[in-house]
Amino acid sequence: MAVNLRGRHLLSLRHHTPEEIKFLLDLSRDLKNKKRAGIRGNLLAGKNVALIFEKPSTRTRCAFTVACIDEGGHPEYLGKNDIQLGHKEDVADTARVLGRMFDGIEFRGFKQSVVEELAKYAGVPVWNGLTDEFHPTQVLADFLTIQEEFGYLKGIKLVYVGDGRNNMANSLMIGAAKMGMHFVIASPKSLFPAEELVAECKKIAEECGSGAVIEIMEDPKAAVKGAHAVYTDVWASMGEEDKLAERKKILQPYQVNAELMEATGRDEAIFLHCLPAVKGYEVTEEVFESRRSRVFDEAENRMHTIKAVMVSSIGNL
């Protein structure tokens, strides 16, 4: 059965089937090859995209902007001081105004409830560029990177080390459950992911028959044994800067260093990070700059996967 994502939101990967995720990754690969061949497209010609940013951004903003222009569309950046979202004007009203002027809306901010309310009222596709709970466009880029490296996703052992309840750990767990991966979170008990989400991901794996394995543990060296990819993120996310001193104490044993990468037992194991990285904290400079690191492949792949998300939902296909 053909996959049709026309008019679809991307709020998290919860609502996408494994076939739809595979379709997005295949489309991303094709669009990446097209760009590398120097072919400018028109799949977004005549389309206008609103880019709402409550939080600052490098990769997400640049990826949406370049991806849109590459295919002939017009991106309009709307920073927190440019519009009245949630201040003078409530989210529903902003959504209805922007939905009458734009063909799609990206939102990067704090509350997942805001991006969901935008989607409810806008009348056009809404894409989550990051909230405190989920970061789905990053996961697509991560999975494209893993697929490029190993040729497949099903059966890949992906280990996330660090703050086990942040938006990346949440999003990777959902994606891994859908795609049949062996996903492990290694973190202190105080930073384990929500039990409800772990149970939901195990249920997803069972219902879609992906064969995914989801594990949560405290011992980082035991967790990474046999890993194809080791993933980490900053120890204090945006808005949590006041917790950094405390996090440094409890997360120091979870630093991704050469010793931890060796503990995978796989010479071909790669290192992943959504960036920006605080080198010397969650990852050492040695690992970040090593032959194992694929962080800049991931960063580039944000653009190709975001392009696929936009093209599949509002493009001239």
From TrEMBL:
It catalyses: carbamoyl phosphate + L-ornithine = L-citrulline + phosphate + H(+). Its main location: cytoplasm. One of its GO terms (molecular function) is ornithine carbamoyltransferase activity. Keywords: Cytoplasm, Transferase. Residues 8-148 form the Aspartate/ornithine carbamoyltransferase carbamoyl-P binding domain. GO terms for biological process: citrulline biosynthetic process; L-arginine biosynthetic process via ornithine. The keyword Cytoplasm applies. The keyword Cytoplasm applies. Its EC number is 2.1.3.3. Gene3D superfamilies: Aspartate/ornithine carbamoyltransferase. It is found in: Cytoplasm. One of its GO terms (cellular component) is cytoplasm. Carbamoyl phosphate binds at S57, T58, R59, T60, Q84, R108, H135, P136, T137, Q138, C274, L275, R302. Residues 154-312 form the Aspartate/ornithine carbamoyltransferase Asp/Orn-binding domain. Pfam families: OTCace, OTCace_N. InterPro entries: Asp/Orn_carbamoyltranf_P-bd, Asp/Orn_carbamoylTrfase, Asp/Orn_carbamoylTrfase_sf, Asp_carbamoyltransf_Asp/Orn-bd, Orn/put_carbamltrans, OTCase_ArgI. L-ornithine binds at N167, D233, S237, M238. Belongs to the aspartate/ornithine carbamoyltransferase superfamily. OTCase family. This is Ornithine carbamoyltransferase. It comes from Thermanaerovibrio acidaminovorans (strain ATCC 49978 / DSM 6589 / Su883).
